[in-house]
Amino acid sequence: MSAVLPTAGTGASVTVEDDTEYIRSRMLLPVLDIENRNVLMISHSYGGMPASAAAHGLSKTDHATEGKTTSVLGQIFIAAILARGGDGKDVVATFGGQLPPHIQTDEKENLIKCEDPKPPLFHDLPPVLADAAVLSCISQSLKSFQSPCPAATWHTEAFKGRCAYIRTVNDRAIPYEVQNMMLEGSGQEWITRDIETGHSAQLAAPETLKNIIIEVSKQFEAM
Fold first, then answer.
1. What are the per-10-residue average pLDDT scores of the chain (223 residues)?
2. Which of 92, 97, 129, 145 lies at a CB distance of 3.0 to 4.6 Å from 125, suitable for a disulfide?
3. What gap in Å lies between CA 141 and CA 14, rounded to an integer?
4. Which H helix or E strand runs over 76?
5. How far apart are alpha carbons 78 and 166 in whole angstroms?
6. Of 100, 96, 90, which is closest to residue 174 (Cα–Cα)?
7. Is 217 exposed, middle or buried, given 0-12, 13-18 or 19+ CB atoms closer than 10 A?
8. Residue 170 CB: number of other CB atoms within 10 A?
9. pTM higher than 0.90, yes or no?
């Protein structure tokens, strides 16, 4: 299951908290409580922030204490932003006060944009696929990057041993070195895997990515 988050494609004053609530109420809880199925949460890039925050109270340990049989079994982050959150800082302040050079801000329209997305996001895709991916790109609410990062769950005891990070080795949007800095700065032990792609591994190497996700998910299921 995937979705276009509320902050995507709008200049409205919607925040990362709105994305968090959307993931929790529209995606996680219906599967857990209505369909009665476990969830493996996979997030990419910016999505790592609202996704992890949305999992508060939904771990296997948390749900077991409530007598529930379903839970978020684990979290897999793909070239994702790792912000601990909960300290009032937005994502820009959390990572040094500057956006990466491929992202431009439009204060008047309240948007962040990537005017030329192919080099940072799709440089390793076949030309036809890269062109199609560019056409699918949309802007995002500037407030999503200027609102406080919600508290993540990847560092909590409830998800200890249940978080994995897939590093995109040839990434030009969130470089491999930056991904490693975030992992080291998290102070947590992670299950890590590398994939030889740019930022959009789901397009560049879908089969390889699928196999990594299946392998890691089996570890979570066995816990």
1. 84 93 97 97 97 98 96 98 95 86 93 96 98 95 94 98 98 97 97 98 98 98 95
2. 129
3. 7
4. strand 72-78
5. 5
6. 100
7. middle
8. 15
9. yes
